[in-house]
What we know:
Helix content: 25-40%
Structural class: alpha+beta
Order of helices and strands: EHHEEHEHEHEE
Number of strands: 7
Largest sheet: 7 strands, mixed
Amino acid sequence: MDDVVVGPVDLAARVDEALAVQALAFGLTEDEVGVRRYIVLRHLQNPGARALGATTADGRLVAFVYGMPNDRRHWWSTVVEPYLRRTGTEGWLNDSFVITELHVHPDFQGRGIGRTLITTLTDGSRLPRSILSAIDTDSPARGLYRALGYTDLARQVHFPSAGLPYAVMGAPLPLLRPLRPDAH
């Protein structure tokens, strides 16, 4: 991570850069990017929404994360609530900080940038827990979330217009930190 700096980012001003990273990391089409642009800009207007970015020395945005306190009236909550109710974890929708998006440019993945972004963002929350959704497959992203203390609250969650099922995951805050290799 020596060649990138993590810090606050005006995501509304840099939304096109962020979505270019998300398109590469997540495989979005041009039409999907257009829809997401509207969604991101709308999300950033929510009370408590915060964003961080990772930039190179020349100012290029190579990763971002944003989230906000959960509001049970928001679309995401209304979709996941029945799934959480079935698993008895519906209470996670209360007093939770939602990680809405976390994406790292493929050339910068595997270097701890995603971990730094999500832990720094959630460290700034006064809420007792965090929730997120991720594609329900064994992936590096899900491995990262598990390492940070997230556990599955519901699986095989189907969002309208999403081709793949998702898992909803939750973790108490602060998120877990890995032990240093030299720690005993």
